[in-house]
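Subgroup meeting minutes
Present: P.N., E.W., G.H.
Scribe: E.W.

1. P.N. recapped why we're keeping a running log of single-chain structure predictions: easier to compare across weeks, and new members can see raw inputs and outputs side by side.
2. G.H. added today's entry (50 aa).
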Amino acid sequence: MDISNLISRVTQYITEAAMRIFKPDEDEYPSTGVQPFAGYPYNEKTTNSW
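Output recorded in log:
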């Protein structure tokens, strides 16, 4: 195997890995914002006391 061919393949391998790491996100998550409160308010009478 030719040394210049080996260096070219190693460089291509490292470059492709860096491109995958630093490319823009392709996720299609919905934008998030203020979410409505879906729980129950704190009630001191119904809590367990330790």
